Amino acid sequence: MYLSKIFNEKNLTITDQAIVSGGNFALNILIARVLSLNDLGTFSLCWLALLLASSIHQAFLLGACPTAISRRKEATAKEIYVHHLAILNLGTVLTSFLATYALSLLFFSKAQLNGFFPITLALLVSSYLFFDFGRKMNQNLSKTKRTLIADGIVLVVQLATMAVLFYAHNLDLISLLASWALIYSVAGLVLNFAFLVKIKSNLESLVPILIEHWNYGKWLMATGMIQWFSGNIYTITAAAILGNAAAGVIRLLQNIVGVLHILFISFEIYIPVKAAEIYLRQGTKSMVDYVVAFAVQGMAITIAVVLLICTFSTQILQLFYKGDVTESSLLCFFAIFYLIVFSAIPLRIILRTVGNTRALFIAYVISLLISLVIAKPLITQYGTTGVLLGFLISNVVTNIYYIIAAHKHIWSTNTHRPYPA
Fold this sequence. Notes:
By secondary structure, the protein is mostly helical. It contains 16 helices and no strands.
């Protein structure tokens, strides 16, 4: 009984997220140690392409799953739905492969297109989507233990593969991408096998599910793309103007400060559920008080980590990067910027809890428009520092809009409870 309480779905989900976030942090640090700054920048751009594909994939296929599964009461109906969704996922994976291959030919330079780079990148993106579908579908079916085990094994194999390639003097960008593509493909086959067998599919059954997911996800896909561009346009512009090494510097700084992502993700997983319960039972004021109380604690931890990074910035860069250390002041700037990043989290949670997702969409649009206007002049004038200034300006303006929206829709209203007690 005691163990069942410890290993419940909620705790398993949090543990899995900790493994994924901590594992990504460790992998990124190792990659920064072994790749040149230019190759690190190219890897960063590859990962941005993967995140864009993942955002679209999440909105189109996975976003509607919890609701769609819960709506199908019978076990057989759920199995049929999941099977047909897995078939649609195969089409999505194939589409992502072809799109990534074509776009890599269009956007990467001729020097980068030598050899197997385009097809390797396409394999990485498509295999990751295949793997991610399997892990998240298991979570949606309350089989989080499978996802936890799979994520743990994938992380161990990735680390082991990097070690073998490094000691064999064969670890470069192409071998890294290819090995990860193979790992994701094998793990994806294991996780998706049960979804793809036993039940026969037909076009008549696929079309209604396709329409259901399109209706649910079309605006989420647009939002995801806007969010991606608003968050990454500075990195992309820096790579275009200053070269891929500039993207490598940004990636290096993000890797180091990325230790805070574990805190941020944990905050966004745990707080919204309790905040929603308090909102329904006790009203707006109690919910806001609860979120703010946790935000104060989270900000205190964030400030402590930022002070630690700023105090030992040179030593941290020497530890995490094999090249010459020239970016310690940029690391301090970037770490301080994360105080702004954290402050947006409780504001977004409050807005989501009261159902004002429109404000979140508008904030992303505002951020994108500002980024489109200031990215090129800032980076042309100030180089890599201009990227960080752009991040700061966009996020400050976005936070101001969050505060205005929260005040307008929450604190200025006389309604404290969404429903009568």
